[in-house]
Amino acid sequence: MLPDGLRDGLPPDAAHEAEIVTRLLASFARYGYARVAPPLVEFEDTLLDGAAATIANATFRLMDPVSQRMMGVRADMTFQIARIATTRLAKLPRPLRLAYAGQVLRVRGSQLRPEREFRQAGVELIGSAAPTADAEIISLAASALRNAGVSDISVDINLPTLVPNLCRALSIGDSEMGSLRAALDRKDAVAVASFERGAALFARLLEATGPAADALAVLNEMDLPEEAAAERTQLSEVVRLVQTDSPEVMITIDPVEHRGFEYHSGLSFTLFARGVRGEIGRGGRYIAGDAESATGFSLFLDSVLRAVPGPELPMRVFLPHGVKPQAAAGLREKGLIAVAGLMPADDDTLEARRLGCTHIYRGGRAVALDEDQGS
């Protein structure tokens, strides 16, 4: 028995997941993202520094018996990549493109993702605030997912800093803003209309939710303060660039959603695939270190695997006991799986089936079991 939210990876699923990760990393590399591999455990004060404090409640902690300091098991890899970029790789030219893949562990799962341990794969682009950087990240996520076998991809783009910017412009305090954000998250138009300041403006924002063209049409009609208008301009440009580069991706916009984007500092997004429960990835802008603008995404392999075709049964050749090792070596050099019989069997064909093989070695070649007539 394993704790809730943890599981063993069994064949052929474990190998299938590894293959999907390999495809994703290959896609990242083709865009110029170099892989890094941070440790599974770090000292707590480093792991949860700065914006990473937002995941403190999701982080397992343990005492290091050597240093007697508290350590944390990573619940997300984004902040580790940001730490590497702003410390170990601080002198490399910007923008810096980094990729990663690895296991994460969380204190508890969610209703949509009960798993507490799962693998993440993603990228971080550090040192550019240009809309082309946001567009590259979204297009790369879509391209990598397609190469992994995911179809019918959609992206929901959010502006988690838009409402705070509007509240500052309207002199709305933190307490009132908290109630307003809760009403906006619920899409509660009646509650939004009850606020004294900006009710009409925020009610109009609720209408700017849906397919990109419709949402942008509403946003472009609105008279927004300077900072909010700048966010709208950036959003419009990113949508245009993504539609040009990845026209097959369906884009929706929700300018008031911020749940799950608490540490983000600008345009953010969530990735979905048709027929798959929950999100398969998310990303967006944040501040790396003290001041570097960064953006990136994380894909959740447990969800990605639900969006791709299942593993194909590989060609697996059984070599009856006594076949020379050179025969097995020749098959393996061709990329085939060769399983040697360790003891004589009464019926080699039955033994091959028992061991999950699809073929048997007869007369110097691999013969499908359905065609095998015996020796």
Overall description:
The chain has 375 residues and is an alpha+beta fold. The chain folds into three domains: 1-154 and 258-312, BirA Bifunctional Protein, domain 2; 161-251, no CATH class; 316-371. 36% of the residues lie in helices and 23% in strands. The protein has 13 helices and 16 strands. It has helices at residues 13-30, 44-47, 78-86, 131-148, 162-169, 174-185, 189-193, 199-207, 212-221, 226-245, 301-307, 325-333, 348-354; strands at 34-35, 41-43, 60-63, 70-73, 96-105, 117-126, 153-158, 210-211, 250-254, 268-273, 281-288, 292-300, 316-319, 337-340, 359-362, 365-368. The protein has a nine-stranded mixed sheet. The protein has a four-stranded mixed sheet with strand order 14-13-15-16, sandwiched between helices. Helix 1 runs antiparallel to helix 4 (131-148) and helix 4 (131-148) packs parallel to helix 10 (226-245). The chain is elongated. The model has no long low-confidence stretch (mean pLDDT 94).
